[in-house]
Task: structure prediction
Amino acid sequence: MKNVLIAGVAAFALVACGGGEGGDSAADAVSDAADAVVETAGDAVEATGDAVDAAAEATGDAVDATVDAASDAGDAIADTASDVVDGATDVAGDVADAAGDAVDAATDAAGDAANAVQDRVEEVVDGVEEAAEETASGS
Result:
């Protein structure tokens, strides 16, 4: 490829100087053409470097945006998890309160039933004592 480029530059130089009839002007033309090729190649390398730099910057920006999005998603997940834990804690507290209320109600009902049984037993004992006294007194 390099040889083809050099041959092209030489042919261009010969045409530019009128077919190569004046030796000094042909050499100058080849030198000028070679300088132009080197300059063009340098410009191409510089443009490629600029394109690589731009692509690297765009890639860095994309990575930064991806990291930010992932961080935001992680924050949202943590917030949601915290909300779920808070909700579960509230529900557990409500269940514990309801269970405590149920135990209190059952305890009260059992106490009322025990008092009612005690009252009835006392009435029966009083009735038995009264009947025993009546029997003992002969009435």
